[in-house]
Amino acid sequence: MRTYILRRLLLFVPTIFGVTLVVFIILRIVPGDPALVMLGGFEGEGTFTQQDIDNLRRNLGLDKPIAVQYVIWIADAARLDFGDSFFTNTPIWNEVRPRLPLSLQFALMAMFLAVLFALPMGVISAVRQDTWADYSLRIFAIIGLAMPTFWVGSLVLLGLSLQLNWIPPLGYVPPWEEPWTNFVQLIFPAVALAYSTNAVTARVTRSQMLEVLREDYIRTAMAKGLRERVVIYRHALKNASLPVITLFGVQFATLLGGSVVIESVFSLPGIGRLLIFSINVRDYPMIQFLVTFIAFIFLVMNLLVDLLYGWLDPRIRYD
Questions:
Q1: Fold category of 102-269 in CATH
Q2: Taking burial as the number of CB atoms within 10 A of a residue's CB, which of 110, 155, 174, 296 is the most buried?
Q3: Is the overall model pTM greater than 0.85, yes or no?
Q4: How many Cβ atoms from other residues are within 10 Å of residue 22's Cβ?
């Protein structure tokens, strides 16, 4: 096990290196110049000369060859110095740190709601196959798959504003300051985001449960007189959960990266919204850090999922 974990951790280095290289090159070849954006402003109302552009590019280090820029950035990143934001001229971590608790809590709440509803939905739909309960839950899941996230979020806001004449408080208050305000701010965005995640997970759970319930050892357990609930949840669900666990890992990493749409609809200052803003203003250092950070989260979640496989299925060994 130790050898396997060490080998996977060593693979992090070339993977992260490849991500940084691809992102760095793409940012430099796509149209758009950070100096023009900074001097021209959002509406392009700024006035400047070519000399101003050249001076700003020199100050930002954009006048150097791309290869030299990359070597300088990757050397600084290896020392955990990710540079300063082009837009705010402050250290990258100072911009990301206040937004990270929101994104982490938001992702955890959405995943908790998805697990809370998706697993029972998938199990009931499989056990009661081709009954009214199965059809109802499948329709509910299909609607969740078909409806875009921004549409679900907009419907939640419309329902709150039109039916209750109330909308959640804007912004973000940490839970250790005002727990109830924090809960009210995030629960409705989490519900809107969890609906799509819940739909995918329920469908995968149902299909995996249907396969496992047809296995011989399930019929043997039932024939021995074990209670149906014990057979379903202790034997069938545990063996059907491997693909579901993989799905949860990928979804959590995606949610932690931030759902840009939901954050925009509910005005949540998370790292996903920060990433889109940085792309709009061509803030290269911020984009490079956020994409690398999200890639690292994906790698960590994939490693944790692989390790969970060994606990869920004793036949899996990492020798």
A1: MetI-like fold (1.10.3720)
A2: 110
A3: no
A4: 12
